[in-house]
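Sample entry (406 residues):
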Amino acid sequence: MVLDSRGQPTVEVDCYVDGVLLGRAIVPSGASTGAYEALELRDGDLQRYLGKGVQQAVNHVKDHLEEALVGLPVDEQRVLDEVMIELDGTPNKSKIGANAMLGVSLACLHAGAASHELPLWKYVGGVAGGLMPVPMLNILNGGAHAASNVDVQEFMVMPHGFDTFAEGLRAGVETYHSLKAELKKDGLLGGIGDEGGFAPNLPTNEEGLKYMVRAIEGAGYSTEEIGIALDVASTEFHHDDGYHIEGKVVSSEELGEMYAGWLDDYPILSIEDGFGEDDWAGWAAFTRAQGHRVQSVGDDLFVTQSERLSQGIELGAANAMLVKLNQVGTVTETLEAMDLATTNGLNNVVSHRSGESEDVTIADFAVGTRAGQIKTGAPARSDRVAKYNQLLRIAEDVHEYKSPFG
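Predicted structure, serialized as tokens:
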């Protein structure tokens, strides 16, 4: 057991090969979690860590997974993951816990790379080589990530009009500091959210968009170079009678019209979870109407699972998938879902969770899988910055960098 960035317990796994420690991984944890995610096993003992303990998951690693995997080749990722999936035997990893399984899966991935003396991104990517991702930096937080009255969970800047990853990151970082100055000017500089972005109280969600444009221009950039990405996380405010946003109750259609208005007025490139996880019709109608001019990203909708994704592809529900390893529980299943997305013309966006750690696996994973996009928070708090720093290191060897937005 180790602690994540919110001070909650999570699982860390070490993988030894021939008695030598070759791999270590820490499992992340989400705040706004989809109902269809693989199960994160928590102890529920209110006397320890307010019920959030992970001793059962840790015990499952020691008592079951270790016994099943010791003696198998560490570089046969699919074999290792399939042994664990079979051992668990449930559709949502509820017997052993997705947090136990993912810790093992990732630790073995690191050990496999180390045993071949390869950097992780190269081990994941193989002969295809790496591609540096365009970063999405969450600089203004609302929703479940902040104690504010803003419904939209994440307002992100997307520096897509630059020649290198390092230049794009610099532009994003400067925009973050510019936003801080703009909020300070207006007396709105309060705390920061779980992912390092500022969390002011604002009268409307659109006010957040205005601040984003002010921040971009205040940093000396144009909205042609830096666009806006949103994670609405609308499942959080979707109820039986509709979507509860800005004190009103609106239908899927009305919510889609609101987004369309924002697309007219602001440089929005990507909208994640614009609709609830069960509102397939709302998703499909919006993607049909607006998918030609915005990336419509399924997170709670797909939960990085091939079965949900197949359904979405059939319905034309979205044109991109958010990729979170802990939503499905193994590296192999994550890669399968990403392949399914790519084969069907959907973009992949590799993502952190709001409960993160110093573990930087997703930086290498995004480069190795050639996903092209990564979201891993604000350039603040070392749990977020660690990923950006790892990407800067990788960028010294990987020079290919291509924006999915031209």
